[in-house]
Every structure is written in C-alpha cells, then in structure tokens.
Amino acid sequence: MARAQFLILALLSVHVLLGALCLAASRGEREAPALRWWGWGLLAYAAGLAFTLGLVLSKPVANFLGNSLISLSAALTIQGVLHHTDRRLNMPVSLAGVAATVVVLAVGNFAMPSSVAVNIIAPTVTATIFFAYGTAMLLLHPQPDAVRPTRFVAMVLASAMLVWWVRIISMPPLLVEPVDRDRLDMVVSAFAIAQILVGVGAAFGLFWVEVRLAQAAMSHMAFTDPLTGLANRRAILARFDEEAARWSRTGTGLALAVLDMDRFKEVNDAHGHLVGDALLCHVGRVLGQAKRTEDVLGRLGGEEFVVLLCGHQSGGAAHAAERLREAVAAHPMIHEGSRLEVTLSGGVAELPADGTDWDKVFAAADARLYEAKHTGRNRVVGAEPG
C-alpha cells in the first residue's frame, strides 16, 4: 500500500495548498466569498484526510474525526460555489445533516467494530447531497457574466460524485479475504489521483469565474457612468459605430438626440451638488423608463444626456426626442417635500442627412441643442425646426 499512501499524502498536500491559496486570494481588494468558503472546505477535507491516516489516534477515533470533518467540508465548499448563484445553503438544515452523519459515524466506530462501509458510505452520501444541489444550482442559475466557467465548475462537481460512487462500488470485492493487496493499492491510488484532479479542476474553475467577474466589473466601470449607471461617452461612441454599421447594411433609421438640463447650475447653487447629483440620477431614470427598448441612453458628462434613436421612421426621431422631453417635464423630483421642476432642451440629428460619422452627427445635434437653448429652452429642435 506504499503507493496508495504516498498518493493520499499528495492528495492531502494538494488540498492544503489549494485551500491556503483560495483563502489568500479571497483576502484581496475584491471580496471573494466563494474562494473563502471553498478554501476552508479544502482545509477541512485535508484535516479529515490526515485524521483517517491514523498516524496518532486509535483507528476508531481517527476514522470518526476524519470522516466527520470530510462531511463538514462538503457543506463548506458548496456554500462557496453557491456564492456564484443566487442561492445559498440553509445552514441550520445543512449542519443538522452533517450532525446526523456524525451520529452515524459515532455508532459505526464506537458502538460496533469499526466499519469500513460506514466510514466510506456515510460521508459520501452527505457530500453527494450537497454536491448534487450545488451542481444543479450552478447549471440552473449560472453567473450571467461567467456562464462557461460556472458550468465548468458544475461539471467538475458532477465528476467528483461519479468518482466517489465508482469507488464505493469497486471497493467491496477488493476487501474479500484473501485481500489482493496490489489490486487494492491500485484502486486506492486511482481514487487519490482522481480526487487530486477534481480538487485542482474545481479550484481552477472558481478562479476562472473570479477572473471573468473581475473582467466584467472592469468593463462595466469602463463603459458606465458612475453617477447615473447609464452608458458613458465611450460606450455611446462604440454603440454608435455598431448602429451606423447596421444602418449602412439595412438602411434602418438612425438618429442622435442630445438633451441638456435647463438651468442646472441654478439647482447646484441653490441646493448644493448632492441635490444636483440626485437630480441627474432622477432625470436618467425618467429617460430610461420613457425611451423605447431599442434606443440607447447615455450620459456624456455634466448635465448632458444622449440618446441613440434606432429604427425610427422618417421624421420620427424628433417626435421620439420630444416625448422624452415631455416625460422629464412631467416628472419633477421631490426633495424634502418640495417639487424640483426640471426641463430639457434638445437637438436631433439624423443619418445620412447630417452625416454618417459621430463627429458630424454629434456636431449637428449639438448645434440644434444650442438653438433650442437660445429660443426659449424646454424644447427639441430637429433637422427642420418649427
């Protein structure tokens, strides 16, 4: 059994290393509760495995403590992976399940001669229940920004369950006297190797999820206005290029509306910048609710918003921008019991009449915006004003 014992030590060492790595990574600038729970689960599994080697304690005590920790490790690791879904373990129920397994292990090790079947099957059944639930939740409710790595982790968890039950099925014939030590050594060694692969695969899968989530967060920061949560200038320019390319292929209508809040400086001067920021967010929400689904809303900066009006009919862009202006005028913000009236002035430019690239189209819309400002505010000027 020398080869099997060596590989079990390797399995233990790998889980200690991966557990420590997960815990270290979870303490970085970005919170990673999935890695933290998974790390503690790996360390609990490694501790349980160390006990089952029986190097210090008597065999019944070692098996009881070791397999109890292995059962607990399943709950910890699955609580970790569930942080990449919208589900969580019910911890009182989960701990009750682990406690029931501990009772079975106590009976199997102390109330009767130490049972190999109890020490193998009891923690496996418990772990299978946890892992089956975790696998199902990962497949049914994957992270929207990390679907592929989330499903990869689910497949690794499913592989772990397969390995456990293949082990259980293959073990009884090997324990019949006279025991074939070489064959038993080979099977235990194969199980240890499979467990190493599963542990490494799952840990790498979780790190893959974390990388994808970090990339998504950076992309969100790069393309989102931090105050209003709307698309920022960079995102609008990128989307304009996409829509302009679609317009050139299909000829569907495309227009740009630039909307500016009237007398916004007076709000800041009278009520302070915090109220001004709240008003910007309020206008962003109203515009977001009033626009069509296919239109794209963003904030260019300051009090200036922009809307890509996609797929409109001839002359419809100015009417769509006018409806947005009316929606904002009809929804004042309530601040400390008072109504803060807000209006917009806007300019609309259309492709191809006003150009086909951003600079020309935006310049035309911006010029009409200033025309709206200079002719009374709270109005939208299109290609043919009046």
Number of strands: 7
Low-confidence stretches: none
Percent in helix: 55-70%
The computed structural class is alpha+beta
Instruction: Please report the first level of CATH classification, the CATH class of the largest domain.
Output: Mainly Alpha
Strand order in the sheet with the most strands: 2-3-1-6-7
Tally of DSSP helical segments = 12
Q: Can you summarize the main beta sheet?
A: 5 strands, mixed
Assembly type of the chains comes to single chain
Q: What Rg, in angstroms, do the CA atoms define?
A: 31 Å
- What is the CATH third-level topology name of the largest domain? Rhopdopsin 7-helix transmembrane proteins
- What is the 3D shape? elongated
β-strand percent reads 5-15%
First-last Cα distance: 92 Å
Account of the 3D structure:
Helices cover 67% and strands 9% of the residues. It has 386 residues and is α+β, with helices and mostly antiparallel strands. It folds into 2 domains: 221 residues, Up-down Bundle (Rhopdopsin 7-helix transmembrane proteins), CATH 1.20.1070; 149 residues, 2-Layer Sandwich (Alpha-Beta Plaits). Strands 2-3-1-6-7 form a 5-stranded mixed β-sheet, with helices on both faces. The protein has a two-stranded antiparallel ribbon with strand order 4-5. α3 packs antiparallel against α4 and α10 crosses α11. The chain is elongated, with a radius of gyration of 31 Å. The termini are far apart. The mean pLDDT is 91.
